[in-house]
Amino acid sequence: MNRRDAILGGLTMAAAVTASGGAGAAGSPAPLITRRIPSSGEEIPALGLGTSGPFEVGSAESGRAPLKAVLEAFFAGGGKLIDTSPMYSTAEGVLGDLMTPAMRERAFIATKVWTRGQREGVQQMTQSGERMKRPKLDLIQVHNLLDLDTQLKTLRAWKEEGRVRYIGITHYTVGSQSDLAKVIEREKIDFVQLNYSATTRNAEQRLLPLAADKGVAVLVNRPFEDGGMFNAVRGKALPPWAADIDATSWGQVFLKYVLAHPAVTAAIPATGKVDHLEDNLAGARGRLPDARVKAEIVRVLTS
Fold first, then answer.
1. How far apart are CA 60 and CA 150, in angstroms?
2. Residue 142: beta bridge partners?
3. Which of 263, 231, 259 is nearest to 245 (CA)?
4. Angular region, 41: left φ>0, alpha ψ -120 to 50, beta rest
5. What residues does 267 pair with on adjacent strands?
6. How far is residue 233's CA from residue 124's CA, in Å, rounded to a whole number?
7. With 213 labelled, which of 9, 13, 91, 140 sits at a CA distance of 20 to 30 A?
8. Contact assessment for residue 95 and residue 59, using Cβ atoms and an 8 Å cutoff
C-alpha cells in the first residue's frame, strides 16, 4: 500500500465524516488545530511542511511546478510553518524562489545551521536568509547538535539583535534523544525538533514531558517513519474508531496520534504531492485520539 492508495481508501468514509460535521460543517473544512509556543504564547498551526527530499530539485519547471502547487495548497489550507535546512541541498533556494511575497509574509520559516565555527555559522545563516528572501527568519535550529555551543552563542546574539525570533536544536534519531534532553535541561531554548511516531514512541518517556516542563516547543519529524508505517497497514481497512477522531485515512490516523500528545507543537511531514498535503492538513483538523484510541493505533501497527 502506498500513500495514495491509503488516501483513496478513505474517500467513502470522508463523505460520512463531512456530513456529520466532524471535519467541517456545511462542507467546509474545520480550521487547523493550533498550538502555543511556550516561550512567547504565539499560536501556530499544528501541521507544518517539511522540505527534505521533495524540495531538493533543480531549476527545471517540471520539477518545480508540483512544489508550487503544494505551497499554494498549504497556505490556502491554513498552513504557515515550513521547515528546511542548508543540509537539504537546493531546498532553501527552491523555497525562496517559489514563495510569493504574500506567502513569504505569512510563512513561519524555520531553518537550521549545520556547520562548524562561528564565522562559518554566521555565513551559512546569512545565506539561508538570502536564499529565502527573508533577512529575519522565524526559527533557526542547530542541526543535529553540530558544534552546539558555538552556534547557540551566535543564535542568542542574533535573537537579542532581532535577526531571528526563536532558536532551537534538532535531531532525527532515538539514540540522540538523551543528548537533546541534556541540552533542554541546561540551556534556554525555544524549540526542539525530534523524531516521534506511533511506532517510535521513545520520546514519550522523557523527552516530551521534559520539553513541556521546561517550556520548549516541539516540532516532530518522521511522523510516518519515512513512509514505512503504511506498509504495516497494507490491506487493512480503517477501523470504526477512526470516525471517532474524524480520520478518513491511515495518514490522518498516524498524524493524529502524534498531535494528541500535549507537548507537541507541530508535525512537519515533507511532501511534494498535493493529495498528500491535503491529507496531512486533514490530519490536523477535528478530534484527536484519547488514550483508548491511541492504544488501538499502536495495536494495529504492531499486530
1. 37
2. 113, 169
3. 259
4. left
5. 47, 220
6. 41
7. 140
8. no
Between helices 274-283 and 61-76, what is the axis angle to 10°?
A: 20
Query: Per-residue pLDDT tens for 2-33?
Result: 566 655 554 444 444 433 345 455 567 899 99
Helix and strand numbers (H, E) in the chain are 13, 10
pTM score, whole prediction: 0.92
- CATH superfamily of the 3-302 domain: NADP-dependent oxidoreductase domain (3.20.20.100)
Q: What is the DSSP string of 107-146?
A: -EEEEEE-SSSHHHHHHHHHHHHHHTT-SSEEEEEEGGGT
* Look-up of cell digits 514512541: 201
User: Which H or E run includes 171?
Assistant: none
**Residue 8 vs residues 3, 65, 122, 168, 262: alpha-carbon distances, Å:** 9, 23, 46, 37, 30
Residues 6+ apart with CB under 8 A from 33: 45, 46, 47, 259, 284, 285, 288
How far apart are alpha carbons 10 and 16 in whole angstroms? 10
pLDDT 10s digits, 251-298:
999 999 999 999 999 999 999 999 999 999 999 999 999 999 999 999
Taking the C-alpha atoms of residue 190 and residue 222, their distance in angstroms, rounded to an integer, is 20
What are the residue ranges spanned by the domains of the chain?
3-302
Helix, strand, or coil here: 205? coil
User: In sequence order, what are the beta bridge partners of 36?
Assistant: 43
**Cell numbers describing residue 45:** 498551526
CA 86 to chain centre: 17
